[in-house]
Amino acid sequence: MNKEKIENGAVRADGNKTRRFNVLPKIICLFFAVVIWYYVMQVDNPDYKQTISGIKVNLVNTDELTNRGLSIFNGTSYTADITVSGKKSVINNYTSEDISIKADILKNYTTAGMQVVDLDVTLPSGLSLVSQDNSISVFVDEKTSVKLPVTVDQRTGATTSAEYESGALVPEFSEVTVKGPKTIVDTIDSAKVKADFSEFGILESTITTNGTVTLYNKNGEEISSAYVTLDYPTMKVTYPIYLTKDVPVSVDFKYGFFNESNVDISINPASVLIRGDAADVKKVSEVVCGVIDEKQVDRDKTITFGLVPEEGYDFVDDVTAAQVTISNVGTVTKIYRVENLAVTGGDRNCEVADEYVDVTLRGPAAELSDITAEDISVISDISDYDSSLTGELSFDAEVTLSGDHPGVWEIGNYKLTVRVSNNG
Q1: Cis omega before residue 269 (within 30°)?
Q2: Per-residue model confidence (pLDDT) at position 6
Q3: Together in a domain, 222 and 275
Q4: Does 117 share its domain with 158?
Q5: Beta strands in 164-297 (DSSP E)
Q6: Shared domain check, 405 and 356
């Protein structure tokens, strides 16, 4: 009984061993079958399909397009996608550069505008075309340009204080040049620049900000096209703020001899209204009508000066002149025959030809009574004159006064006659 079990067991053991040897060839055969199937399906299958993207489209007849005065406005770089079939091993041997796609710009050209141009695909050997992008869109037109005056959209978004006045917005440039397709440019009627000043709040001075130029047709409709360009798509816009101010009219003095104690000055008009850029007007405290040379005021007199506004403001009223009336107070004039005459400067032989000069002084009577002719000198400095001049010549002279005599000055201009000869 045990022997039989052993034998039966041995028989069973031998049977399992035999079955194991029979399965291994089957597994090997199945592996090679899968490999062969994969090779046939993935490498040598004539029906393998693949999509190739981004193939460059070559534009044909662009030179002839240029000869006709036409241009492409949406660029010349186009690509297309196609799907091909064939053996994978063959397809893998090619790149997108091996495939030719052409588009004849003039093949179906009739009128300017967007053109739908058919694509012609040429494949290398071993590939078949399954599907393709059939066409590209090309905008073809005559290139033209036009200059347009620039106006400003007056919507500002800002306000001014009560004493200030706002002016019309001013664009940085008076005109813009518009370039693009003739069919679009011909519809453009005007150019306006828009600017938002709302961020500045209440304005008390002139403000400048950036604005955007917008194009419109005759119906006031906005024209926006990627094919149209402007030389100034943006520009600065100035919002002028003006100020009107009443300022006094004044006069200046050349030497400073006049003061409140020795003259009364009245000016007509005493003040003027000025208007201009707020920042400029704020700086103006007075309008100076002219400069008075005190040495030329020999008596009470009225002098008329022209009134001319300075840069930055204008006169509101029709004011062209101011009359300055000078009244001497507490001073008199006195004439002195002066014999203290001299010439200085230079290295030439010279002598004063005059025997005396009558000098007029103005000042308080008490001061003038203390002055004698001997206290006064008249001197010509000839150091800056042409050294080649000789003979009896006239030179400007200055009056000098010895001692301290406040509030006294000379009236008029003086000269000396000098005989000049060469040295030696």
Answers
A1: yes
A2: 43
A3: no
A4: no
A5: 164-166, 170-171, 175-181, 190-194, 202-203, 207-216, 222-223, 229-230, 234-239, 241-253, 263-268, 271-277, 287-292
A6: yes
In terms of domains, do 92 and 35 share one? no
Q: Which amino acid is at 158?
A: A
Q: Are strands 271-277 and 414-421 parallel, antiparallel or unpaired?
A: unpaired
- With H, G, I as helix, E, B as strand and everything else as coil, classify residue 296: helix
CATH classification at residue 187: 2.170.120.40
pLDDT of residue 8: 47
Q: Name residue 300's amino acid.
A: D
Residue at token pair 């094919």? 227
Give, as one character, the DSSP assignment of residue 312. Answer: T
pLDDT, tens digit, for every residue of 125-173?
Answer: 999 999 999 999 999 999 999 999 999 987 777 888 888 999 999 999 9
Q: Do both 310 and 357 map to the same domain?
A: no
Query: What total number of domains does the chain contain?
Result: 5
Written as six digits, the tokens of 284 are 């103006």
Q: Is residue 139 part of a domain?
A: no
Q: Which domain holds residue 218?
A: 144-239
Given pLDDT bands bounded at 50, 70 and 90, which one contains residue 18? low
User: Above 60 in pLDDT, residue 184?
Assistant: yes
Q: CA–CA separation, 405 vs 378, rounded Å?
A: 17
In this model, does residue 50 exceed pLDDT 60?
A: yes
Sign of the torsion angle spanned by Cα atoms 343, 344, 346, 348: positive
215 plus 279 within the same structural domain: no
Token match 């040379």: residue? 293
> Token pair for residue 423?
């040295």
Query: Pairing mode, if any, of strands 391-401 and 175-181?
Result: unpaired
pTM: 0.64
- Tokens 């620039």, located at residue: 150
Please name the amino acid found at residue 109: Y
Nearest to 80 by CA among 60, 95, 58: 58
Question: Could you say which of 133, 165, 180 is where a domain stops?
Answer: 133
Query: Among 209, 239, 269, which residue terminates a domain?
Result: 239
Asked if residue 263 and residue 188 are part of one domain, the reply reads no
- Average model confidence (pLDDT) across the chain: 89
C-alpha separations of 203 from 239, 275, 278 in Å: 9, 16, 10
CATH number, domain of 104, equals 2.170.120.30
**Cα distances (Å, whole numbers) of residue 209 to 159, 198, 276:** 15, 11, 20
Taking a C-beta distance cutoff of 8 angstroms, is the pair 142, 220 a contact?
Answer: no
